[in-house]
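Example 9 (inverse folding). The structure is encoded as follows.
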């Protein structure tokens, strides 16, 4: 079993994430323009798969099992 988690991305990563999204989906010009807004940028997440980030995490509901 492997634990992964999500954290809010560093705002410094927003431009790179937007550029990658445009490279992949840029042919949908109208949709991409609506998706890549300042509001959407703040919901950008980073995938964390390093267990050291979970050392102090305690779920508020449920359990790890």
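The amino acid assigned to each position is listed next.
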């Amino acid at each position: 079993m492997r634990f992964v988690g999500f954290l809010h991305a560093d705002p410094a990563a927003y431009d790179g994430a937007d550029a990658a999204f445009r490279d992949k989906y840029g042919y949908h010009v109208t949709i991409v323009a609506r998706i890549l807004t300042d509001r959407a940028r703040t919901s950008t997440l980073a995938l964390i798969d390093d267990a050291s980030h979970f050392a102090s995490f305690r779920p508020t509901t449920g359990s790890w099992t």
